[in-house]
Write a structure and sequence with these properties.
Length: 67
């Protein structure tokens, strides 16, 4: 009977450890998702800035050609 109770106690401990591991992993995934969102936002801003720069450069070139 003691071995049975010991096994139950071990399983409960393992279960609690796994629950905590799961919580930790969920927090890590959330942190990674937030970093990916920031990275995607930054890349989008870089692309928009580059497109605006190209348009300004083209407009500047057209103005110089008119002069």
């Amino acid at each position: 009977m003691d071995k049975f109770m010991s096994t139950i106690s071990d399983l409960k401990s393992d279960n609690e450890r796994l629950k905590q591991d799961n919580i930790d992993l969920k927090q890590q995934v959330t942190a990674m998702e937030q970093k990916l969102e920031i990275t995607a936002t930054n890349h989008g801003a870089i692309i928009l800035n580059f497109m605006a720069y190209q348009e300004l450069s083209m407009n500047n070139g057209l103005l110089q050609n008119k002069n």
